[in-house]
Protein backbone atom coordinates (compact mmCIF):
# COMPACT_ATOMS: atom_id res chain seq x y z
CA UNK A 1 0.00 0.00 0.00
CA UNK A 2 1.55 3.29 -1.08
CA UNK A 3 1.83 6.29 1.25
CA UNK A 4 -0.26 9.23 0.11
CA UNK A 5 1.73 12.32 -1.00
CA UNK A 6 0.27 14.56 1.76
CA UNK A 7 1.48 12.10 4.40
CA UNK A 8 4.93 12.04 2.83
CA UNK A 9 5.05 15.84 2.90
CA UNK A 10 3.90 15.91 6.54
CA UNK A 11 6.48 13.34 7.57
CA UNK A 12 9.20 15.33 5.80
CA UNK A 13 8.13 18.53 7.52
CA UNK A 14 8.27 16.82 10.93
CA UNK A 15 11.77 15.50 10.25
CA UNK A 16 12.96 18.94 9.12
CA UNK A 17 11.47 20.56 12.22
CA UNK A 18 13.09 18.03 14.53
CA UNK A 19 16.44 18.50 12.81
CA UNK A 20 16.20 22.28 12.98
CA UNK A 21 15.31 22.12 16.67
CA UNK A 22 18.30 19.89 17.39
CA UNK A 23 20.66 22.25 15.57
CA UNK A 24 19.16 25.26 17.36
CA UNK A 25 19.60 23.56 20.73
CA UNK A 26 23.25 22.80 19.99
CA UNK A 27 23.85 26.41 18.91
CA UNK A 28 22.06 27.75 21.97
CA UNK A 29 23.97 25.52 24.36
CA UNK A 30 27.21 26.85 22.90
CA UNK A 31 26.79 30.28 24.50
CA UNK A 32 25.91 29.00 27.97
CA UNK A 33 29.29 27.62 29.02
CA UNK A 34 31.34 30.82 28.42
CA UNK A 35 28.64 32.93 30.09
CA UNK A 36 28.65 30.64 33.13
CA UNK A 37 32.44 30.86 33.36
CA UNK A 38 32.40 34.67 33.11
CA UNK A 39 29.56 34.86 35.63
CA UNK A 40 31.50 32.71 38.09
CA UNK A 41 34.48 35.04 37.85
CA UNK A 42 32.30 38.16 38.17
CA UNK A 43 30.48 36.74 41.22
CA UNK A 44 33.74 35.88 42.96
CA UNK A 45 35.19 39.35 42.31
CA UNK A 46 31.96 40.93 43.65
CA UNK A 47 32.22 38.96 46.90
CA UNK A 48 29.35 36.61 46.08
CA UNK A 49 30.81 33.61 47.86
CA UNK A 50 28.64 30.56 47.06
CA UNK A 51 26.33 32.38 44.65
CA UNK A 52 25.93 30.63 41.30
CA UNK A 53 24.36 31.77 38.02
CA UNK A 54 22.24 29.23 36.17
CA UNK A 55 21.72 29.94 32.47
CA UNK A 56 18.86 27.49 31.94
CA UNK A 57 15.13 28.07 32.30
CA UNK A 58 12.75 25.88 34.38
CA UNK A 59 12.38 23.36 31.53
CA UNK A 60 16.13 23.07 31.06
CA UNK A 61 16.58 25.12 27.88
CA UNK A 62 19.55 27.53 27.56
CA UNK A 63 18.80 31.18 28.27
CA UNK A 64 20.67 34.47 28.48
CA UNK A 65 18.61 35.45 31.55
CA UNK A 66 20.41 33.81 34.50
CA UNK A 67 18.89 32.82 37.84
CA UNK A 68 21.14 33.58 40.80
CA UNK A 69 21.06 31.15 43.72
CA UNK A 70 22.91 30.80 47.03
CA UNK A 71 22.82 34.43 48.15
CA UNK A 72 20.13 34.21 50.82
CA UNK A 73 22.48 35.11 53.67
CA UNK A 74 24.33 37.93 51.95
CA UNK A 75 23.82 41.62 52.76
CA UNK A 76 21.58 43.44 50.29
CA UNK A 77 24.47 45.66 49.15
CA UNK A 78 26.51 42.57 48.26
CA UNK A 79 23.57 40.98 46.43
CA UNK A 80 23.11 44.19 44.43
CA UNK A 81 26.83 44.28 43.60
CA UNK A 82 26.74 40.63 42.46
CA UNK A 83 23.66 41.24 40.28
CA UNK A 84 25.28 44.27 38.62
CA UNK A 85 28.51 42.34 38.01
CA UNK A 86 26.68 39.52 36.23
CA UNK A 87 24.45 41.95 34.30
CA UNK A 88 27.56 43.75 32.99
CA UNK A 89 28.76 40.64 31.14
CA UNK A 90 28.22 41.13 27.38
CA UNK A 91 25.36 38.97 26.14
CA UNK A 92 23.63 38.59 29.53
CA UNK A 93 19.96 39.57 29.72
CA UNK A 94 17.74 40.14 32.74
CA UNK A 95 18.94 38.95 36.16
CA UNK A 96 16.72 37.40 38.85
CA UNK A 97 17.33 35.80 42.25
CA UNK A 98 15.86 32.39 43.05
CA UNK A 99 14.30 33.74 46.25
CA UNK A 100 12.29 36.35 44.32
CA UNK A 101 14.26 39.57 44.76
CA UNK A 102 14.51 42.01 41.91
CA UNK A 103 17.70 42.79 40.06
CA UNK A 104 19.52 45.82 41.41
CA UNK A 105 19.56 48.25 38.48
CA UNK A 106 17.49 50.75 40.52
CA UNK A 107 20.53 51.60 42.65
CA UNK A 108 22.94 54.41 41.78
CA UNK A 109 24.70 53.88 38.41
CA UNK A 110 28.33 52.85 38.48
CA UNK A 111 29.22 53.89 34.92
CA UNK A 112 32.12 56.20 34.12
CA UNK A 113 31.08 58.04 30.95
CA UNK A 114 33.67 60.82 31.11
CA UNK A 115 36.54 58.37 31.50
CA UNK A 116 35.06 56.32 28.67
CA UNK A 117 34.81 59.38 26.42
CA UNK A 118 38.44 60.22 27.05
CA UNK A 119 39.53 56.68 26.19
CA UNK A 120 37.63 56.72 22.89
CA UNK A 121 38.96 60.17 22.02
CA UNK A 122 42.47 58.88 22.71
CA UNK A 123 42.00 55.96 20.32
CA UNK A 124 40.74 58.26 17.57
CA UNK A 125 43.35 60.97 18.07
CA UNK A 126 45.81 59.37 15.67
CA UNK A 127 43.51 56.94 13.85
CA UNK A 128 40.03 57.05 12.39
CA UNK A 129 37.34 54.66 11.21
CA UNK A 130 37.81 54.60 7.44
CA UNK A 131 35.62 53.24 4.66
CA UNK A 132 36.05 52.24 1.06
CA UNK A 133 35.51 55.23 -1.21
CA UNK A 134 31.81 55.95 -1.77
CA UNK A 135 30.86 52.94 0.36
CA UNK A 136 29.83 51.98 3.90
CA UNK A 137 32.22 49.00 3.85
CA UNK A 138 34.91 49.48 6.49
CA UNK A 139 38.58 48.95 5.74
CA UNK A 140 40.24 46.03 7.61
CA UNK A 141 42.32 48.31 9.86
CA UNK A 142 39.14 50.11 10.92
CA UNK A 143 37.51 46.84 11.97
CA UNK A 144 40.48 46.26 14.29
CA UNK A 145 40.13 49.81 15.62
CA UNK A 146 36.47 49.16 16.42
CA UNK A 147 37.53 46.19 18.57
CA UNK A 148 39.42 48.69 20.73
CA UNK A 149 36.59 51.25 20.64
CA UNK A 150 34.12 48.60 21.85
CA UNK A 151 36.38 47.78 24.80
CA UNK A 152 36.71 51.48 25.64
CA UNK A 153 32.92 51.91 25.51
CA UNK A 154 32.20 48.89 27.70
CA UNK A 155 32.50 50.82 31.01
CA UNK A 156 29.79 53.14 29.65
CA UNK A 157 27.12 50.47 29.21
CA UNK A 158 23.89 52.11 30.29
CA UNK A 159 24.85 55.44 28.74
CA UNK A 160 23.52 56.78 25.46
CA UNK A 161 26.34 56.76 22.90
CA UNK A 162 26.04 58.90 19.78
CA UNK A 163 27.69 57.72 16.54
CA UNK A 164 28.00 60.48 13.93
CA UNK A 165 29.04 59.86 10.34
CA UNK A 166 30.78 62.57 8.28
CA UNK A 167 31.84 62.88 4.64
CA UNK A 168 33.88 65.35 2.64
CA UNK A 169 32.04 67.67 0.25
CA UNK A 170 32.72 65.68 -2.95
CA UNK A 171 29.46 64.73 -4.61
CA UNK A 172 25.96 66.14 -4.09
CA UNK A 173 24.98 66.77 -0.48
CA UNK A 174 21.86 64.55 -0.47
CA UNK A 175 24.12 61.65 -1.40
CA UNK A 176 26.65 62.67 1.25
CA UNK A 177 23.94 62.72 3.91
CA UNK A 178 22.73 59.26 2.94
CA UNK A 179 26.28 57.86 2.84
CA UNK A 180 27.21 59.35 6.21
CA UNK A 181 24.10 57.78 7.74
CA UNK A 182 24.88 54.39 6.19
CA UNK A 183 28.40 54.55 7.64
CA UNK A 184 27.13 55.47 11.10
CA UNK A 185 24.70 52.56 10.98
CA UNK A 186 27.46 50.21 9.82
CA UNK A 187 29.54 51.23 12.85
CA UNK A 188 26.54 50.80 15.14
CA UNK A 189 25.95 47.26 13.88
CA UNK A 190 29.66 46.47 14.21
CA UNK A 191 29.57 47.58 17.85
CA UNK A 192 26.45 45.50 18.49
CA UNK A 193 28.31 42.45 17.16
CA UNK A 194 31.07 43.27 19.65
CA UNK A 195 28.67 43.16 22.59
CA UNK A 196 27.55 46.79 22.93
CA UNK A 197 23.75 46.88 23.49
CA UNK A 198 21.88 48.33 20.51
CA UNK A 199 19.42 50.26 22.69
CA UNK A 200 22.23 52.51 23.94
CA UNK A 201 23.54 53.43 20.47
CA UNK A 202 22.27 56.35 18.37
CA UNK A 203 23.43 56.67 14.75
CA UNK A 204 23.16 59.84 12.67
CA UNK A 205 24.74 61.27 9.52
CA UNK A 206 25.54 64.93 8.88
CA UNK A 207 27.09 64.69 5.42
CA UNK A 208 29.80 67.28 4.79
CA UNK A 209 28.26 70.00 6.96
CA UNK A 210 30.76 69.64 9.84
CA UNK A 211 34.32 69.43 8.47
CA UNK A 212 37.27 68.99 10.82
CA UNK A 213 38.45 72.36 12.12
CA UNK A 214 41.35 73.59 10.00
CA UNK A 215 40.65 71.27 7.04
CA UNK A 216 39.19 72.22 3.68
CA UNK A 217 35.68 70.78 3.20
CA UNK A 218 36.93 68.61 0.33
CA UNK A 219 39.77 67.02 2.33
CA UNK A 220 39.33 63.19 2.48
CA UNK A 221 40.21 63.31 6.21
CA UNK A 222 36.70 64.68 6.79
CA UNK A 223 35.35 61.18 6.07
CA UNK A 224 35.14 60.03 9.67
CA UNK A 225 33.08 58.68 12.55
CA UNK A 226 32.77 60.51 15.86
CA UNK A 227 31.52 59.10 19.18
CA UNK A 228 29.99 60.99 22.09
CA UNK A 229 28.61 59.84 25.42
CA UNK A 230 25.67 62.19 25.71
CA UNK A 231 24.02 61.09 28.98
CA UNK A 232 24.13 58.37 31.60
CA UNK A 233 21.05 56.24 32.13
CA UNK A 234 21.01 53.02 34.17
CA UNK A 235 19.31 50.11 32.42
CA UNK A 236 15.76 49.58 33.68
CA UNK A 237 14.61 45.97 34.13
CA UNK A 238 11.44 44.92 32.36
CA UNK A 239 8.54 43.36 34.30
CA UNK A 240 9.66 39.94 33.05
CA UNK A 241 13.13 40.53 34.49
CA UNK A 242 11.86 41.91 37.82
CA UNK A 243 10.18 39.33 40.08
CA UNK A 244 8.20 40.41 43.10
CA UNK A 245 9.86 41.26 46.40
CA UNK A 246 10.62 38.29 48.65
Keywords:
single chain; 246 residues; alpha/beta; 60s Ribosomal Protein L30, Chain: A; 2 domains; 3-stranded mixed β-sheet; 5 helices; 6 strands; disordered C terminus
Question: Any overview of this molecule?
Answer:
The protein has 246 residues and is of the alpha/beta class. The chain folds into two domains: 78 residues; 120 residues, 2-Layer Sandwich (60s Ribosomal Protein L30, Chain: A). 41% of the residues lie in helices and 15% in strands. The protein has five helices and six strands, in the order αββαβααβαββ. A three-stranded mixed beta sheet has the order 1-2-3, with helices on one face. Strand 4, helix 5 and strand 5 form a beta-alpha-beta unit. Helix 1 crosses helix 2 and helix 3 packs antiparallel against helix 4. It is elongated.
Radius of gyration from the alpha-carbon trace, in angstroms: 23 Å
Low-confidence stretches: 13-28, 101-113, 233-246
* Proportion of strand residues: 15-25%
User: Which percent bin holds the helix content?
Assistant: 40-55%
The outline comes out as: elongated
Topology, element by element:
Blueprint: H1 5-45, E1 52-56, E2 62-69, H2 76-87, E3 96-97, H3 113-124, H4 140-153, E4 159-166, H5 173-193, E5 201-205, E6 224-232
Parallel strand pairs: 2-3, 4-5
Antiparallel strand pairs: 1-2, 4-6
Helix pairs in contact: 1-2, 3-4
Describe the structure concisely:
The protein has 246 residues and is an alpha/beta fold. The protein has helices at 5-45, 76-87, 113-124, 140-153, 173-193; strands at residues 52-56, 62-69, 96-97, 159-166, 201-205, 224-232. Helix 2 (76-87) links the parallel strand 2 (62-69) and strand 3 (96-97).
Amino acid sequence: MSIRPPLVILAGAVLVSVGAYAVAQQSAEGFVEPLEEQAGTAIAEAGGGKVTARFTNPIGSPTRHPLLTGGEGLPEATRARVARAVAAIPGVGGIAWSDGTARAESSAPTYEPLHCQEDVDGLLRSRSVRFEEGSSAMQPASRMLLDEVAEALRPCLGAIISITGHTDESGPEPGNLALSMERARAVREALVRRGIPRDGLRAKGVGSSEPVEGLAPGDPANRRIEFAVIRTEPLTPTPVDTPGAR
